Amino acid sequence: MEITLETVVFYFLAAFIAVFSILTVTTNRIVRAATYLLFVLFGTAGFYFLLGYTFLGSVQIMVYAGGVVVLYVFSIFLTSGEGAKFQKLKKSRFWAALGTTLAGGIIVLFVLLKHKFLAPTDIEYAETGFKEIGTLMLSSDKYGYLLPFEAVSILLLACIIGGLLIARKR
């Protein structure tokens, strides 16, 4: 197997996302968890850029890393403040989480060992103009992007309304 720069970048991004995913769920500080989540989302955008999906990578950064994490941090500051800590996990929940994690790891290993993933050899990249992207963004047909972007806008609206309702109850 030949080691290329793409392979090295892929493994770096995979390790980067794995480390920050673990840090996201194990930290005691909620603001640090949001920051680690931001790094995970940036790593996911790195995968998109590595695959040549520059539009999808930029949407990942703008919508998720930009919008969702900002709203998440905004709602954290409205509800609990920076010094708030997570509650300790009960032993039963810890063992349930550990069992679920092990089951998920076994499933991933099974899929990785059972299937052969072949690298594509003859990929042709086609440049798409802004007019075509705009038409696809606003179309509601099979390959249109109107429905996913509307779903994301509803998600952002729900985050804002939820944050305001929680802050209002205080």
TrEMBL record:
<dbReference type="InterPro" id="IPR042106">
    <property type="entry name" value="Nuo/plastoQ_OxRdtase_6_NuoJ"/>
</dbReference>
<protein>
    <recommendedName>
        <fullName>NADH-quinone oxidoreductase subunit J</fullName>
        <ecNumber>7.1.1.-</ecNumber>
    </recommendedName>
</protein>
<keyword id="KW-0472">Membrane</keyword>
<feature type="transmembrane region" description="Helical">
    <location>
        <begin position="93"/>
        <end position="113"/>
    </location>
</feature>
<comment type="function">
    <text>NDH-1 shuttles electrons from NADH, via FMN and iron-sulfur (Fe-S) centers, to quinones in the respiratory chain. Couples the redox reaction to proton translocation (for every two electrons transferred, four hydrogen ions are translocated across the cytoplasmic membrane), and thus conserves the redox energy in a proton gradient.</text>
</comment>
<dbReference type="Pfam" id="PF00499">
    <property type="entry name" value="Oxidored_q3"/>
</dbReference>
<keyword id="KW-1003">Cell membrane</keyword>
<dbReference type="GO" id="GO:0048038">
    <property type="term" value="F:quinone binding"/>
</dbReference>
<feature type="transmembrane region" description="Helical">
    <location>
        <begin position="33"/>
        <end position="55"/>
    </location>
</feature>
<dbReference type="GO" id="GO:0005886">
    <property type="term" value="C:plasma membrane"/>
</dbReference>
<keyword id="KW-0520">NAD</keyword>
<feature type="transmembrane region" description="Helical">
    <location>
        <begin position="145"/>
        <end position="167"/>
    </location>
</feature>
<keyword id="KW-1133">Transmembrane helix</keyword>
<dbReference type="InterPro" id="IPR001457">
    <property type="entry name" value="NADH_UbQ/plastoQ_OxRdtase_su6"/>
</dbReference>
<feature type="transmembrane region" description="Helical">
    <location>
        <begin position="6"/>
        <end position="26"/>
    </location>
</feature>
<feature type="transmembrane region" description="Helical">
    <location>
        <begin position="61"/>
        <end position="81"/>
    </location>
</feature>
<keyword id="KW-0812">Transmembrane</keyword>
<dbReference type="GO" id="GO:0008137">
    <property type="term" value="F:NADH dehydrogenase (ubiquinone) activity"/>
</dbReference>
<keyword id="KW-0874">Quinone</keyword>
<comment type="similarity">
    <text>Belongs to the complex I subunit 6 family.</text>
</comment>
